[in-house]
Design brief:
This protein is mainly β. It has a domain of 87 residues: Immunoglobulin-like (Sandwich). It is built from three helices and nine strands, in the order αααβββββββββ. The strands form three sheets. It has a four-stranded antiparallel beta sheet with strand order 1-2-9-8, with no helix packed on it. The protein has a three-stranded antiparallel beta sheet with strand order 3-4-7, with no helix packed on it. A hairpin with a 2-residue loop joins β1 and β2.
Length: 147
């Protein structure tokens, strides 16, 4: 074991920043992610996928679901008025979420919006769609040949 200071083996800060205090994710980053995350559960049930997304504080009107290019896109937007004064006085601090959240899931190009059933209750958006979708068989059509 070398008794030389880390200055001779690399950076003076190598040992200091390898301390667990510095290697753990900051609580502020965890809470910022948690605040903007859409907690999601996906399960298979009766030949379907069921996706449950927690959206506390949102209403049905704040949420949109779209199927586009093989992706199921869920977006939730919430905006509040910027009034600094409430009925009972001036707000000194408000801790309510404002902004938008979104989440995308690859579901395959065969899934169409008609295949997805959506339900919103008690702050949870539940989407149900078939696990396997058979591609539509294109019917052959004769082309008329002109003289």
């Amino acid at each position: 074991m070398s008794m030389l200071p880390t200055l001779f083996n690399g950076s003076v800060f190598d040992d200091m920043f390898s301390d667990p205090f510095f290697t753990q994710e900051p609580a502020a980053a965890r809470s910022a992610f948690a605040q903007n995350a859409m907690s999601t559960d996906v399960k298979e049930k009766d030949g379907n996928y069921e996706v449950a997304i927690e959206l506390p504080g949102f209403t049905k009107d704040n949420v949109s679901v779209e199927v586009k290019d093989g992706y199921l896109n869920v977006t939730a937007r919430k905006e509040e008025s910027k009034d600094e004064k409430g009925k009972d006085g001036k707000f000194l601090r408000r801790e309510r979420y404002q902004g938008s959240r979104s989440r995308s899931f690859y579901v395959g190009k065969e899934l169409k919006s008609d295949d997805v059933k959506a339900r919103f209750a008690d702050g949870v958006l539940t989407l149900t769609f078939p696990k396997e979708i058979k591609p539509a068989v294109e019917e052959s059509q004769l082309v008329q040949i002109e003289d």
